[in-house]
Design brief:
Length: about 600
């Protein structure tokens, strides 16, 4: 708007406005402009007692007064409630004042760029006619404030953009070199050029000790020189205070900075801590003849915040191996002994407790091995002679008694042959009787020999006929063999028909890995758990260690024989399971880790280590 509206009544029109207009037209700063604008408004209404213009502060979080009318007064704080409500609710607020009685507080928000950028608050005598006129006047005249605040936002955005551009450009100096020392040297020269400083120094903090690492315009410097020591003292002073230190003249109570100014002859110095994760990792000191402005301070503070993670990263990247191990040990120890990291502490406590248990607690060491049961004595029921199978009476798994038929061979031809020889024997017997009656000695000898031959052949056939029935040699169980589907097939003499093992007389065969065979000895005791006997383990003891290995499933296994301490009727031949043999007592850690340690030793020896 180019001009304010005409007065709304004669009383307002008679108020003098020329001095305020002069200040309004000639204003060169925001505070003078707002002060003149507020005076123009307040001088039109005699019922107004106090007024203020509040604008957003630079931090964007609070609102501060930029103009007051007629003058700053501590009693004006009573208008803050209405101002805060107008800012929060983004609307005009009219609230009765608690004091003085008969007054009201009027707060009107001012918007700029679609946001509330400030508010105008008045304290006035209750007047129903004046309030609408005041609201219209502020509404029409708020365009001046809106333009002012919009320009202010634009200027701040421009300043922030320029600051960000300068900071980014300066940060590239610290990132473009592979060596951190060279990057810091170029950084000091860039800061000296940008701020027209006489000298810029950079120090790094290691173990709470400040070390000067770079000086502008000085590629190398003597670390023990008085100038370097003065810089270190000034940086150490800022490090101890953990704040930005700016000194000039007599240094304002900063002893080390005053000593630095006297040594260098500069007029002003500022030292900024570079803070990363609430820890000072470095410091930057700048000297020059002119004092530092507020904009320059903000630039330096922002730069220090942004360069902090870069500094930390480059310092960590250029550590030596010893420093890396030391820092990692410190980090772990801080996690364990510090007031935080409860999870780390619990893990460490568990690790220590587990280590003590592994190192101190002795346990029984038992070697495990796959097992299979075999009969203590196994007999073979074989074919007694060559012939044909007539019938298989049992098969694998059947229990047999001693003398029980298990197979029958075809004896038809044997019986026919026996009848023939029996007939011949009777004939020779009759001839012998006749020769004896005739006292023919030669005939007696010949016929007697023929009779003996026929009797022998008959006896042989009787024996074969008896052996045609294959019988169990003892009480036991048929381990292998099933002839039920082979009736009528020829069999050779000595062919295995069945394997029979005695009942309740077994031996346990352990297949022990070659890595575990060393401690196994005769008479050692153990336990056996079979797949088919889930009722519990049975006691065994080692009988014999066979010194012959067999390859199975890619492993070398030794055969170890054991026997049950007490017979168990549930046991059957061919059952499989797992046996554990007790070979002594060792520490728990040795029991769990000795196989891995032995393997590592073997590999190390193989590689020649």
């Amino acid at each position: 708007m180019n001009a304010l509206p005409e007065p709304l009544n004669d009383a307002v029109a008679n108020e003098p406005v020329l001095p305020a207009w002069d200040r309004f037209i000639t204003a060169r700063s925001s505070d003078v402009f707002c002060d003149a604008w507020l005076a123009l408004i307040c001088e039109r209404f005699v019922s107004l007692r106090h007024a203020a213009v509040l604008v957003e502060a630079a931090d964007g979080k609070t609102y501060v007064p930029i103009a007051v009318w007629p003058a700053a007064d501590a009693d004006m704080s009573r208008m803050s409630e209405a101002a805060g409500k107008a800012l929060a609710e983004r609307r005009v607020v009219v609230a009765p004042a608690t004091e003085p009685v008969g007054h009201s507080h009027v707060a009107i928000p001012v918007q700029a760029n679609d946001r509330v950028a400030g508010t105008v608050v008045f304290e006035m005598i209750n007047d129903a006619a004046t309030l609408p006129a005041l609201l219209r006047e502020v509404h029409w005249g708020s365009a001046w404030l809106t333009n002012l605040l919009a320009r202010r936002d634009q200027d701040m955005a421009t300043e922030a953009g320029e600051r960000a551009t300068g900071i980014v450009h300066t940060l590239t100096v610290a990132l473009r070199h592979t060596k951190f020392q060279q990057a810091l040297f170029d950084l000091t020269n860039e800061l000296r050029r940008r701020f027209a400083a006489t000298r810029v120094a950079v120090g790094l903090v290691r173990d709470a000790d400040v070390r000067l690492v770079a000086l502008s315009e000085a590629a190398t410097f003597e670390k023990s020189s008085p100038l370097v020591q003065a810089y270190r003292d000034a940086m150490a002073e800022a490090f101890d205070l953990a704040q930005i230190v700016e000194a000039s003249g007599d240094a304002g109570g900063f002893r080390a900075h005053g000593a630095l100014l006297r040594r260098t002859g500069s007029l002003h110095v500022v030292t900024l801590p570079v803070v990363h994760q609430q820890r000072i990792v470095g410091l930057i000191a700048l000297e020059r003849e002119a004092p530092f402005t507020e904009a320059e301070r903000r630039w330096l503070e922002t730069f220090a915040d942004l360069v902090a993670p870069v500094t930390e990263q480059r310092m960590l990247a250029e550590r030596g191996s010893v420093a890396r191990m030391r820092d990692e040990a410190r980090r772990v120890w801080a996690a364990i002994a510090g007031p935080r990291f409860l999870v780390w502490k619990a893990i460490a406590a568990l690790v220590v407790l587990l280590g003590l248990i592994l190192a101190l607690v002795p346990v029984d060491y038992r070697i495990s091995a796959k097992t299979v049961t075999e009969g203590e004595v196994q007999r073979v029921a074989a074919a007694p002679f060559e012939g044909f199978l007539a019938e298989g009476l049992v098969r694998a798994g059947d229990t047999v008694r001693e003398g029980q038929p298990v197979a029958q061979l075809d004896d038809h031809e044997l019986r026919v042959e026996r009848i023939r020889w029996a007939s011949e024997r009777d004939q020779y017997d009759n001839k012998l009787r006749e020769a004896m009656a005739q006292h023919d000695l030669s005939a007696i000898q010949v016929t007697g020999a023929q009779l003996a031959e026929a009797q022998a052949q008959q006896d042989l056939l009787d024996d074969k006929i008896a052996r045609a029935t294959v019988r169990a040699p003892y009480d036991g169980v048929v381990v292998s063999g099933d002839l039920s589907q082979q009736a009528g097939t020829p069999v050779e003499a000595g062919k295995k028909l069945f394997e029979i093992a005695p009942l309740h007389s077994y031996r346990i065969i352990l297949e022990v890995d070659e890595r575990d065979i060393g401690p196994i000895r005769d008479a050692q005791r153990g336990e056996l758990m079979l797949n088919g006997m889930a009722g519990g383990a049975v006691a065994i003891h080692v009988v014999k260690v066979m010194p012959v290995a067999t390859a199975k499933d890619g492993k070398n296994l030794y055969r170890v024989e054991a026997t049950l301490d007490a017979p168990d009727k549930r046991l059957l031949p061919g059952m499989e399971g797992v046996a554990k043999v007790e070979v002594g007592r060792h520490k728990l850690g040795w029991v769990l880790l000795h196989n891995a340690v032995d393997w590592l030793r073997l590999q190390a020896w193989t590689w020649g280590l």
